Amino acid sequence: MSDAQSPVIRYVARRAVPFIQLYALYVLGHGEDGPGGGFQGGVIFASSIVLLALVFGYGAGRKACPERISDFISPLGCLVYASIGLLCLLMGGMFLEYARLAGPDASDHAKHAAHHFGLIGIEAGVMLTVTASMVTLFFEMARPAPDEGGLDE
Amino acid sequence: MLQHLPVLTIMVPMFAGLLVPLLARVHAGIVRPLTIGALGFSCFAAIHMLLHVQGGHPIEYAMGGWPIPTGIGYRVDGLNAMVLVMIAVIGLLTALWMRRSIEDELPAAARPGYHAVLLLACTGFLGITITADIFNLYVFLEIASITSYVLIAMGRRRQALYAGYSYLIVGSIGATFILLGIGHLYMRTGSLAMADILAQFQANPDLYGMSDVRMAFAFLVVGLAIKMALFPLHGWQPGAYTHAPSASSLFIAATSTKVSAYALYRIVFSVFGTEVLVSGLPPVRDALLAMACAAIVLGPLIAISQGDLKRLLAYSSVGQIGYIVLGLMLLDERGLTGGIIHFWNHAAAKGALFCVAGALVLRTGAARVDDLAGLGRRAPWTASAVTVAGCSMVGVPLTAGFLSKWYLATGALATDRLYVVPVLLASSGLTAVYVWRILQKVWFAPADVEPRVGAEVPWSMRLPTLVLAAACLVFGIAPWSVEFARDAIAALGIAP
């Protein structure tokens, strides 16, 4: 299992994870009108899982985000993005024309709000896929080879 | 509905490609119908759009409702409607054809993923073709490339990994060149919308003299030449076609390099304008003419000595892509007609031949040309398909290949490039040699040779093969493809 060097590292890592994830959501929420967005948020979120794996070992990290889950979330995020696009199309707009999500004769204010919700929706989709892909990439490369211990050694 | 067809053509296969890995956990039986349904829809949409754009009625689509120079636009005209039909039809036929083949070549756990990757590859190729935004073209090119690497690397032998990896390295270099070209172009014109950039070139021909514009064109041409495996940049291609799973070979050989060739057509016609070849940068035209002629002769020459059917067909593709580039470089209505109809003609002939190569792998475990011996006795349907497709490759009259070569030759004569005619004749002669090598095994094997092929393959594989072979005859006799190509050229604005 792991050889987490000192109790300080273990303690700090465990306490830091929720804050990293919260910060990821903050970056996601600011993507539409400032620096940040789904990609950056996804990478930050994935880094919390990577931190767990670095400190507590491959097995513990994988347990926090099992392969079934990451393989499920990865296409799901893209689907969220594409579904919002198609939803705009079904509401009578062009593909990804978020303002149409407000309905046929919505006020300008409602359209504006719908535009923001559409943007945050697709960014959330991006975040899901990026998180899952980053986690998958990391664990595929860190996977212990049969003759080595991988990260655990 | 028609208004949204451009985006739905792309999104439906993509949606299905994302749903497949999710639904396969619940019910594995849904994967195949979902794949076929999605590609069937794309086929329907592409054919519908092809018929609609005839007579110069392009369909434009503004993503997110943003007007086109600001936002990303899709644009379907006569040229890319033909290519869309080609990709969607080949994708659908591959999906129909591949069931038995991937049951044989791939482990059960990999099959749903394979369907998903095929759908995403289709999305990528369709997207490259339909987009009217040059950066969007690059994005779709990446989608198509990355999925192609996976489709190739899934081959059951270890060489497939090496072939996929070397394609990844070379293909990434090509993609980098393309991105550098787009960057230079953006730096000079400040726009990524194709129509916008073209308008700037038409308003100000002095732009062709700018060194960054020249760099942009050179980078784009070299990058696309790598992607389309234009001789001598074809090094990645034979290994990739040979070691990929048979279904991947079929799909990629019949579409991928031609989509890159289409991108070259699009860049010349809709981004730089044809002036770039005439007065802007004539050396590029001379270089590409030389490369195309070299490909046309040397591709089939190398193919003659190959013992592996898939590798033989790969080298033959190197030659065939030369025809398409040659047609563009002639910049004459007849030559262009020859180049454009060759998209369909080559897809049909090469598709049919790779179907047969895949059937051979299913029956004998390998694709050795020698193992075709006695195919005519055991599997007359498949053998007839080989014969028709082979004749089309050679350019026998009444087959599709003849029309391509005829139009290319008349185009060359009209533009006083007499040397093209012996090049085309030499290529037909060399092609006849390797096609004869195949046909001799198929029909004239000595009676005492026990055929290794056994019986016919199942109908799910035979039908797509026969459809593609029949297309070689239909396009050779009925002038539809020529009509579509003429219409495309008229819409692109080359004086008839």
Structure at a glance:
Chain A is mostly helical. Chain A has helices at 7-29, 38-56, 58-64, 67-90, 108-142.
What is the multimeric organization of the chains shown?
heterodimer
Radius of gyration of chain A: 19 Å
Q: What is the number of independent domains of chain A?
A: 1
Mean pLDDT of chain B: 89
What shape does the CA trace of chain B take? globular
* Low-pLDDT stretches of chain B: none
How far the N terminus sits from the C terminus of chain B, by CA atoms, comes to 34 Å
The number of helices of chain A is 5
What structural class results from the helix and strand content of chain A? mainly alpha
Sheet with the most strands of chain A? none
SS strand fraction of chain A: under 5%
List the total number of helices of chain B. 20
Strand order of the largest sheet of chain B: 1-2
Mean pLDDT of chain A: 85
The tally of beta strands of chain B, per DSSP, is 2
Provide tags for this entry:
heterodimer; A: 153 residues; mainly alpha; B: 496 residues; two-stranded antiparallel ribbon; 20 helices; 77% helix; 2% strand; globular
